[in-house]
Amino acid sequence: MSTESQPTAAGAPPTSEAKGTWRFVDFSAIGIFMFFVPITISGTSTIPLDHLVSAIRRMPEVPALRRAVAILRHLSGANRPVGAGPLVRALDLPLSTVYDLLAVLEELALVAKTDGGYLLGAGVSELGSAYVRSDPVRRRAQPVVRDLAETTGATAQLAVLRGWESVYLVKEQAVSPAAIITATGVRMPAYLTATGRAIMSRMERREVLTLLSAEEGFVNRTGVGPATHRELAKLLRRTRADGFAVERGEISPHIWTVAAPVLDHHDRPIAAIGLSDLMDEGESPHPEREAAAATAVRRAATAVTARLRG
Fold first, then answer.
1. pTM for the complete prediction?
2. Which pLDDT belongs to residue 3?
3. 201 CB-contact burial (10 Å; exposed 0-12 / middle 13-18 / buried 19+)
4. Quick one: pLDDT at residue 148?
5. What percent of the chain is modeled with pLDDT above 70?
6. What is the largest CA-CA distance in the chain?
7. Which of 38, 78, 177, 196 could form a disulfide with 166 if both were Cys (CB 3.0 to 4.6 A apart)?
8. Measured in whole angstroms, how far is the alpha carbon of residue 83 from the centre of its chain?
């Protein structure tokens, strides 16, 4: 029996070698077209691959998210409430879309509605300061706060802002500290605390107004402290000029606190270190004692800032 190959009959299916040859030719033709043959689309003449890349780049990944972020960024640059109309004109968005996005952002506390329009909400501040509540910050600050308490014999704290409140992350106290209620996790109105005012003194005025937008009025615990935005603004200007904030009985009678801000790489305030002790016979602390405390907290805040900047 002969083992020679028989010729392929007419009309028989092509062999695998023939299929591979045609596949190579097809793909080669596609490659030549995509990489070497310029075509004109919308007045632009270039190879098909360039047209494809440009089209992908123009595709919005999540249109609603992009538009919501655009609204937040626009509000962040405003010095006063912004209405829906100006947002429509500034961002070139449909009015219905702007109202829909504002409703969702307000529900999430990312914007706050006022009589004059919309401001950034307290939720934006919470997001902005969330990373400073992480373990790395706490770990870097704890030794400095502990050393401050040990060297001064007073109570030292690390606090951040969360909305319009000061939240205490670290508390270190001497052997016989004053009875101070700033335990870890405790929240207090930021405008009454030295730590809160130290942080706010390094913020823009519109940022401070945003923080307080969710608060209906100024809380007064002991009859001491700012009661209006104007009084707070004056106090923050003084604090920024001095480089430290002083709290004299606003939270607890007969307790005073001095605090200085901790800054990030861009000199933005992200936390504050405070030092608290009893006031002498219920009166304001002696100027020399207050000055010494201010020097100590500013040195500690500078040390934590350096640690965070690496």
1. 0.59
2. 46
3. buried
4. 95
5. 73
6. 123
7. 196
8. 24
Q: What is the pLDDT at residue 5?
A: 46
Pairing of strands 165-172, 111-114: unpaired
Kindly give the interhelix angle for 84-91 and 95-107, rounded to the nearest 10 degrees: 120
Please state the rounded mean pLDDT for residues 20-42.
62
What's the sign of the alpha-carbon dihedral 195, 196, 201, 203? positive
Q: What is the pLDDT of residue 1?
A: 43
Q: Give me the count of residues in the chain.
A: 310
Is residue 166 within 8 Å of 133, Cβ to Cβ?
no
Counting Cβ atoms within 10 Å, is residue 12 exposed (0-12), middle (13-18) or buried (19+)?
exposed
